[in-house]
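sorry for the late reply, my laptop died twice this morning and i had to redo everyting from scratch. anyway the thing you sent over, i finally got around to it. pasting the sequence first so we're on the same page, its 127 residues, then the predicted structure underneath. double check i copied it right bc i was rushing
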Amino acid sequence: MAIKKPAEVSGKAATATAPKKSAPSTASKELTADELLAANLGTLTTVVGTLSETLDMLVQKVESMAYHIIATEEVLAEVVATSGLDLARVNARIRAKIADGTDNQGDSSRAVDVAASIASPIPKCCK
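ok and here's the structure:
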């Protein structure tokens, strides 16, 4: 004796779709306005906390970069003061590099100013 499938027992052909589960009653699952507000505030609190942590991490990274840049500038200033520098050649290289990297759209004036600042003699007050 063969075991009959549920569709065969009822006499109907089996369908390709799975049987549907009855949806829970929406009336018993509806949240009140206060509950929705509390849930949304909880979600917002979590998101703001995550954003705050991310922002703190980014500030620490930027701070670290600033320390590295300042240290590098000061080391370069000492090297320049000791060995000398052809600032015109440095400026030409800066302009060429920025022009090449930006299809001649970039403004190299800030980089040239930074190079001049690094290459300038150290003020007597700071020695």
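Residues 33-83 form the longest helix (51 residues).
thats about all i looked at so far, will dig more tmrw
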